Structures are given as C-alpha cells and as structure tokens.
Amino acid sequence: xxxxxxxxxxxxxxxxxxxxxxxxxxxxxxxxxxxxxxxxxxxxxxxxxxxxxxxxxxx
Length: 59
Prior knowledge:
By secondary structure, the protein is an alpha+beta fold. The chain has a single domain, classed as CATH 3.30.1390.20. The protein has helices spanning about 15-25, 40-50, and strands spanning about 5-10, 35-40, 55-59. It is globular and about 35 Å long.
C-alpha cells in the first residue's frame, strides 16, 4: 500500500468542529506539522474533508 505525507498548511481557527476533530484524528495539531499514513480509503476520506487545510504528497 502507498504511503502519503500530510502537512497542515492553514490554521484550523474558524473551522467547523468536525474539521478540527478530523485534523486531530490525522495527528495534526500545528501548522507545518507532518505525519505519514498509509493511503487507505478511510485516511483518504479524512484528507478529502480537510483538503483546504492540508497538503498531501505521495512517498
């Protein structure tokens, strides 16, 4: 399975609570923080919900 690197690039201030919880579930708490995940359908779905706050790179 492919791995993806997810980086938070925008603040979660003024975002709905659901999007804040999605960022926490991905392991992102600060701007410029990076995490690696397997590219499963559940992870890709979470990334899709907050795509305006994160950048994704395949590794």
